[in-house]
Amino acid sequence: MSHAGRIIGIPGLEIERVVRRNGIEVWAKPVHRPPCKHCQGDGLRIKATHVRTVKHTRQGNQVMTLHLRVPKYHCQECKRYFRHSFTGIRPRYRATEAYRLEVFEAHDGGVTQRKLSRTHLISAATVERWYQHHIAQKRSEMANRPCPRVLGIDEHFFTRKKGYATTFVDLKNHKVFDVKLGRSEPSLRRYLRGLGERDKVQVVVMDLSETYRSIARRYFPNAIIVADRFHVVRLINQHFLKVWQQHDPEGRKNRGLISLMRRHQWNLSDEQHANLMNYLAEYPTLQALYVAKQKLIRFTLLKTLTARRAKTKLPRYLELLEQLHDSPLRTLARTLTSWMTPIIAMWRFRKSNGITEGFHNKMEMISRRAYGFRNFENYRLRVLVHCGWDGIINRV
């Protein structure tokens, strides 16, 4: 590569002159004649020359503009014409690939379209078009992705008009696999049928949603359904707080008591535990339910158990559920019984949808930064860029 090529980043150029005004204007021409791109012959003559102007990069606060002298060659052997091509500059484009990638990475990093239109001397529509172009390339590269072996499924809110969307997460690699609009089986049917290697999914982690459970059974037949630990604990607390509301509506409004009731018993200090027991002593039924709730939560927090240890824990868990069937928490007991297999599977695995919930927080920040999205496809592409395709983008 010539000295000029090292400075500019485009090989095979000879700089004729440089003018600094409002920006950096560089006039350059090719150093060597290439072989014929049709027959690879060397017998070329220059038929004509025109000047091509392209934006290249920014140095400091100034945009570098290249004025390239482009020869039009005529091959004496095959009698065909062609124009000189430059590395990193596509035909008929007004900016180099390096410049377009620079704009894409800046916008992807949070720089607004208005700011980029001022600093890079292009319109906001051009920023969006270049951004969508790079995203489309990444989408085509990921079009035939196989399903992850450990899949997390959860919903999140998109807009009032379009409702909820479903997030599919590769829990093993901590990447968002895809985001699709809708959370019902009919709305996701076409997408799920087109997924590759669905039969190789081994584990599906979800909250206690009957819709998602039916989807997993139908479209991932070989996968083990695992209940999400966070949602199970939250469900237990919700049912207990509802029963507490029935026994003592005034005490239910006390924020200090609410905090103590929600926390795990082993996380309370001696003073906090004593205060809580003094309060529960006035409500014997509520106190018994609180003790049962703590035992139930201990079961839900079990993880990475062997099959033998899980079998030893199961009888005591079933006995506890049987007791709850005859208590004010009978609705909770019925729900946990219907989800018996996924909850027992939860004891064997460490993975949960905590990764998915973290991505949902990030998606909310992406939406806020864009002041909301109306077009779901644009939202989906941004989510995949920030949460699913980082490794691919860094290699481009």
CATH fold-type name of the largest domain: Nucleotidyltransferase, domain 5
Proportion in helices: 40-55%
- Name the structural class: alpha/beta
The helix tally amounts to: 16
Give the low-confidence spans: 391-396
CATH superfamily of the largest domain: Ribonuclease H-like superfamily/Ribonuclease H
Q: Report the order of strands and helices.
A: HEEEEEHHHEEEHEHEHHHHHHHHHH
Q: What is the level-2 CATH architecture name of the largest domain?
A: 2-Layer Sandwich
Task: Give the overall pLDDT as a whole number.
Answer: 88
- Beta-strand segment tally: 10
Taking the sheet with the most strands, its summary is:
5 strands, mixed
Strand content: 15-25%
Distance from N terminus to C terminus (CA atoms, Å) equals: 22 Å
Specify the overall morphology: elongated
Number of domains: 4
**What is the CATH class designation of the largest domain?**
Alpha Beta
Radius of gyration: 31 Å
A few lines on this structure:
With 396 residues, the chain is an alpha/beta fold. 47% of the residues lie in helices and 20% in strands.
Structural features, described:
- InterPro entries: Transpos_ISL3, Transposase_DDE.
- Residues 151-383 form the Transposase IS204/IS1001/IS1096/IS1165 DDE domain.
- This is ISL3 family transposase.
- This protein is of the alpha/beta class.
- It folds into 4 domains: 1-91, no CATH class; 95-141; 150-227 and 353-395, Ribonuclease H-like superfamily/Ribonuclease H (Nucleotidyltransferase, domain 5); 229-348, no CATH class.
- It contains 16 helices and 10 strands.
- Strands 1, 2, 3, 4 and 5 form a 5-stranded mixed sheet that branches. A 5-stranded mixed sheet has the order 8-7-6-9-10, sandwiched between helices.
- Helix 10 runs antiparallel to helix 11.
- The longest helix has 19 residues, at 229-247.
- It starts with a helix and ends with a helix.
- Residues 391-396 have low confidence and may be disordered.
